[in-house]
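Session log. Operator J.P. requested a structure for one protein chain; no other inputs attached. Running the standard single-chain path with C-alpha cell output.
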Amino acid sequence: MPSTTQLQLPNDAEKLLLHSCCAPCSGEVMQRLLDAGIPYTIYFYNPNIHPLKEYEIRKNENIRFAEKNNVPFIDGDYDKDEWFKRAKGMEFEPERGIRCTMCFDMRFERTALYGHENGFSVFTSSLGISRWKNMDQINDSGTRAAAHYPNMTYWTFNWRKEGGSKRMIEISKQEHFYQQEYCGCVYSLRDSNKWRLQNNRERIEIGVKYYGDE
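Structure written below.
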C-alpha cells in the first residue's frame, strides 16, 4: 500500500543526494522519491563491503534499478584500504557499536563532500530503512557530516514509516534483487558465519541468493 505522506525536502531544496548502501534497502526509498516527483541522484560509496565480489554485486544491482528508472548514479571510490585503516582496533566491536559509527561517519563525510562540491544542499541515506540498523546512530552520523559545510542538511526522514520496511521487501521480490545475508564488512561476515555454525546452518555463500527465489 503506498504511503499517504507527501514528501517534501527540508529547506525547500529542489533536489536530493541519496547515499545508497544497496538495491534492497534503497529500492523503496527510490520508488517513493520517484512517486513524489523529487529529483535525486544516487551516490554509491560503500568501501566497507567485503569481499570485492560482494561489493560488485550490490553495486551493479543498484545501478540496474537506477538505470531502469533513469536516476543518475554516481559510483564512489572503493577505497577499502582507508576503511581498514580507520577500523583498526575495532575488529571485535559488536554490530551497532563504535565500528559502525566510524563506518557511517566515513561514508557520510564523503557523501556530504560530493554534495557540497556538486550543488546539493540536502542528502540522506537508505541505510535507515533496515530494521537491523540503529536509526539514531545513522542520523547522528549524517548530521555530523552535514555540519562540515554551510547550508548542508542531512534529511532524517524515517523511511520505515507507513509500511516502508514492508514495501522494501515487496519491491525487492518484484525486482528480484540480490539478497545479501550480512551487513557488508569482513567482520560482519565473520560474526554472521560464526552464529550460523553455532546454530547448525551453512556458511554464507556469496552471489547465490535473490529475493523471490524459492
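Operator note: The chain has a mean pLDDT of 95.
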